Amino acid sequence: MRLSRAAAGVPTPPERIVHLGLGAFHRAHQAWYTAHAADADEWGIAAFTGRSRDLVDRLGPQDGLYTLVERAADGDRFELIPSIVRVEAGDDVPAFVTAVADPQVAILTLTITESGYRLSADGTPDLEDEAVASDVELLRNAFTRDAPGDTTDAVRPATALGRVLLALDARRRTGAGPIALVPCDNLPDNGGLLGRALADLTGRTSPDLAAWLAASVSVVSTSIDRITPAIDADAESHAVLEATGWLDAAPVVTEPFSDWVLEGDFPAGRPDWEPAGARFVDEIAPWENRKLWMLNGAHTVLATFGQTRGHTVVSAAIEDPVCRDLVEALWDDDARQLPGFDLADYRAALLERFRNPRIEHRLAQIAQDSTTKMRLRIVPVALGRLASGHEAPGCAAAIAAWMLGVRAGWAPVPDGIDQPAIADLDASARNTLLAALDARLADDAGFAAHVADAVAALEAS
């Protein structure tokens, strides 16, 4: 039977959350937590894609319903998730603006990926990016009109943050009340980063909006964790049909494990997520560092080097002793920078999750944007170790593995570097790649020597 709310007898909760960046991860994480909240019947999600209409075409006819497949090593568990009640294309700017400006909406969540924020190395909006510069001019002109609300339909920012600002300005003008912004991307201090980026952009476009943001918008920081691989949607749809009887065009496959840690206020209310396992803390940095450095850092190492060893998925790469030794050495460095945690159980749990052979977490998918990921997941640990007068051999080996992946073409070459220039990975090439991650690493002779030794050892492995 084709999936729909009427067919499944599932009620439609009111739209009180708007999400930008609809994809598999949002549906495996924030939408799942909202479906499991104690007051789930009070919180529906209006979800907007990045730009593609594919999910609109798949999920729209199903009234936002989809099947979550928890894929454990010993079998699958199927669950119908009802929290998404409307699906729209991300480039439908008027619909997004209207949704965020609705006084019933209390929360705007984001999963737009690291690159979607379009920030420069110092965390400010990248004004060298043509789309960012164009949006600043577009919004400045729109916000200074006498009656910008009459022309909102004609204003179409190209960037995600540009669309967010336009929507927040509409909310301000209609007096819809305060709202919480909840970024859910794997970025350190993602709430602080988003808040500073929006403050910078409003400072360039609208003093009135800047003042309203400071008074009425809370930006929540989050640490999120649930491995959600890319899938063959048609094949998984067939499996769901056989197991449940529902013809689902947009299932999601994820691991049984999930984790969500949040820091910040929700001035207009929020779902009761705690029974679903969400944790609210006063200081999120240690939690997000643990996850970002250890899970995501290990994934980046496996993705960039595992492919050079002939592996295609995480579960195969982690069984390779060379890859596993790289991960364990990185975790040793991480542990020294996370003194407040007893990490033995966490490390064991990570290995178990990585080894799940039924989660096809593809290395090529993880290797995308690997330069940015290295800067966020490996470099801070290395710099922390060096700043305290210690060596960072695990980080050096991880960076060497990344260099070999870049040279082999399994990971993208950093901007401004030609592939022929790094073909030999000689001292000059290594220095160039180190500098692309952080000039301080390139300037540290001891660290550079560790990287050189690790390159040689990995080439010989």
From TrEMBL:
Transmembrane segments: none annotated. GO terms for molecular function: mannitol-1-phosphate 5-dehydrogenase activity. Residues 284-403 form the Mannitol dehydrogenase C-terminal domain. The keyword Oxidoreductase applies. It catalyses: D-mannitol 1-phosphate + NAD(+) = beta-D-fructose 6-phosphate + NADH + H(+). Keywords: Oxidoreductase. Residues 15-274 form the Mannitol dehydrogenase N-terminal domain. Pfam families: Mannitol_dh, Mannitol_dh_C. InterPro entries: 6-PGluconate_DH-like_C_sf (IPR008927), 6PGD_dom2 (IPR013328), Mannitol_DH (IPR000669), Mannitol_DH/Oxidoreductase (IPR050988), Mannitol_DH_C (IPR013118), Mannitol_DH_N (IPR013131), NAD(P)-bd_dom_sf (IPR036291). The keyword Transmembrane helix does not apply. It comes from the Bacteria. This is Oxidoreductase.
